[in-house]
Specification:
Elements (H helix, E strand, L loop, with lengths): L2 H56 L18 H16 L1 H11 L8 H5 L4 H28 L4 H34 L10
């Protein structure tokens, strides 16, 4: 083969290989960018909905004294039912998002409720956020039921259930912080050096 033909074949071959590699790498990088963006949006949506649930809980939480912002709930059962439903709906909006988190941020420590009790991964923290919100909701429900059954015992019930509610609410905020940190660690990873589970 002549040197000119060898040169042409080399140039064509190297150009073809370079074009194929460029196509493969750019397609791969585009998929990674799309996944990165979907993770960012999902983490923000989940965090926002969790904060909406926490805000709804404020308007249903146990009272601490006469004149408390939720004092009307002691005498207006329809308002109380409306606020209970708003809390339930706000927390329920997180449930389908939890499945998206499991897929988009892969890795769960274990199955079922165990992951929520001992969270390690982003998906575990999402589960834990929901668990803590449910505990806060349950504390509120028990408080209002107990007050309805024993209105004269309100001061003692307020003391008991305010502590229970605050503990669950604080745990929800803490879990939400951990969820955000875990999601951020996925978002900070390099495209070229994938995160290890």
């Amino acid at each position: 083969m002549s040197p000119a033909i060898t040169l042409v074949v080399s140039v064509v071959t190297s150009s073809t290989v370079a074009a194929i590699l460029t196509g493969i790498l750019s397609g791969r990088n585009e998929r990674k960018k799309q996944l990165h963006e979907s993770r960012r949006v999902l983490a923000g949506d989940f965090g926002g909905e969790a904060m909406n649930a926490l805000a709804a809980l404020r308007h249903y939480k146990p009272t601490t004294r006469a004149g408390h912002r939720n004092d009307m709930l002691h005498i207006d059962s329809s308002l109380r039912a409306s606020r209970a439903e708003a809390v339930r709906d706000a927390i329920d909006r997180l449930r389908p998002m939890r499945g998206r988190v499991w897929v988009t941020f892969p890795g769960r420590s274990s199955k079922g409720g165990e992951a929520a009790d001992d969270p390690h991964t982003t998906a575990d923290w999402a589960e834990h956020v929901i668990l803590c919100l449910r505990k806060a909701e349950e504390a509120c429900n028990r408080f209002w039921t107990a007050c309805e059954g024993d209105p004269s015992g309100r001061p003692a019930l307020e003391s008991k259930f305010e502590v229970e509610y605050d503990k669950a609410k604080d745990a929800a905020w803490s879990a939400l912080d951990e969820f955000a940190l875990s999601a951020a660690s996925w978002l900070e990873q390099s495209f070229f050096f994938p995160r290890r589970l």
